[in-house]
Amino acid sequence: MKRGPYSKGILMKRKILSASAKVFLEKGYAGTSSKMVSELVGVSNGLPFFHYGNKEGVLLELVKWMFSGQFRTAENMIGKVTDPLLLYGLETSLQMHIAELSEPLRELYVTAYTLPTTSDYIYDEMTEKLAGIFGEFLPGAERKDWLARELATGGITRSYTGVPCTADYPMERKLRDYLSCCYKILDVPKERYEPIIDQVARIDLTETARSIIAETIRQVDAGYEAAMAGLDVPNTVGL
Question: 154, 122 in Cβ contact below 8 A?
């Protein structure tokens, strides 16, 4: 439907965010230039990132959408998983599979865990999530304790996500090493997390990861087309 009473400034920001997301998913963060985004939006070079402060500000908005949207999509695709420890293992393992299938997304994940504003956002969001999932193992923990553990697991996630699998280091071994490190940091007893890791390792998450990538691209394309046409972005699109 036709757009509502958006100001020119708001509409331009939506166009820039949508165009930036499109290029990020194709070229990665480092490979995205203001010129590429300008050409998609149809504005002068150097203008786009100004609306968000800089390129990092644009990535922050995209990270907010991607992390929340992909977690919801993962939960829907995984099905009715009632064990929060298993859900955590599956969601984080899906991120590893997504990175393995898309180099631009691998770079976006690693960059998001590296830059100040994006990493602060992730740490803040995940601190609350960790407290909800692993509270039974640290009953007296305060927010600062969960933040400390998120900083540790976040660093591990960045490292493992950034390293591609090889014949000598296949996905199953990578996931076992990664999840073992995270569960240990979160004080989960070995007898609780080892069966979870075995279960995760037996599940082929490749097709689910492909579906999430395809849905992410579809939503970004839909958001870009709607923004360029001056239409309301569909409800399924976070941009």
Answer: yes
Tokens of 2: 């036709």
CA 222 to chain centre: 19
Residue 150 near residue 130 (C-beta atoms within 8 A): yes
* 0.90 surpassed by pTM: no
CA distances, 168 to each of 57, 63, 225 (Å):
38, 32, 43
3-class SS letters over 140-166: CCCHHHHHHHHHHHHHHHHHHHHCCCC
Separation CA 105–CA 103 (nearest Å): 5
Which residue shows structure tokens 């073992």? 180
For the stretch 169-216, pLDDT in tens is 999 999 999 999 999 999 999 999 999 999 999 888 898 889 888 888
Q: Which residue has the tokens 């609306």?
A: 51
Q: Nearest CA to 21 among 220, 214, 194?
A: 220
Dist. CA 239–CA 222, nearest whole Å:
9
* Distance separating alpha carbons of residues 99 and 170, to the nearest angstrom: 14
